[in-house]
Amino acid sequence: ANGVGKSTLLRVLAGLSPVSQGSVTWNGFDRIALPSTGAPVAYVGHQSGLYTNLSVGRYLERLIALNPHTNTAADKLPGLLEASGLKGLEQQLCAALSAGQKKRLALVRCVLLDYPVWLLDEPFSSLDTAGQQWLKGALERHCDAGGLLVYTDHQAVFHSTACLDLSDHTKIDADVFSLEAWDVSL
User: Fold this and answer.
1) Per-residue pLDDT tens over the stretch 112-147
2) What's the CA gap between 4 and 117, in Å, rounded?
3) Are 76 and 112 in contact (CB under 8 A)?
4) Can you give the pTM of this predicted structure?
5) How far apart are CA 74 and CA 76, in angstroms?
């Protein structure tokens, strides 16, 4: 259902929104007090977070350069562009991409940075069937490698033991829940 706080929860977990009560900690540290680089979290919200004045290729080059811990990112980029359906768009401005292409590029950011925690707000929206299949595979590989996924959606599209599914039919009744290294009190 709309308006029940799914996006807000993800923004709080990402450290982008304050909590009105309770706390969010990452490995014992207050998540809200941490600098944005304090926890290895990849977040994709409703807005793509792309630099629209850059080309796809330049955006990805800068992303790799600004994240030095991703020492193998440049090597996996060509295969990732092909698999995600973005190959051949490297010279295209991010602003000129379709909604589905922007979503794919934002999700490529998660795969490329390879952070252990992915927070995704309706990641399947705007994706065609091929994009959804690519994303399911990327999510599966992330979870199989020990990554943690928290995503929202209006339909249950992907399931894993390392996934907290916040689709419409899911309701969090507990006052406190834990996501491995996360300790969230609401």
Assistant:
1) 988 888 899 999 999 999 999 999 999 999 988 888
2) 23
3) yes
4) 0.80
5) 6
User: Can you read off the two tokens belonging to residue 144?
Assistant: 């199989």
Which residues are 184's β-sheet partners?
A: 24, 177
pLDDT at 175 over 50: no
3-state secondary structure of 18: coil
For the four alpha carbons of 93, 116, 168 and 128, in that order, the dihedral sign comes to: positive
Q: Which one, of 82, 92, 10, 84, lies nearest residue 44 by Cα?
A: 10
Answer for the pair 17, 30: CB distance below 8 angstroms, yes or no. no
**In 73-181, beta strands by DSSP E:** 117-121, 148-153, 163-167, 176-179
Identify which of 152, 147, 176 has the alpha carbon closest to the alpha carbon of residue 164: 152
Residues 184, 186: Cα–Cα separation, whole Å: 6
Tokens of 146: 């020990």
Direct distance between the N- and C-terminal alpha carbons of the chain, in angstroms, rounded to an integer: 20
Task: Kindly state the tokens that stand for 92.
Answer: 């295209």
CB atoms within 10 A of CB 104: 27
Contact yes or no for 82/111 (Cβ under 8 A): no
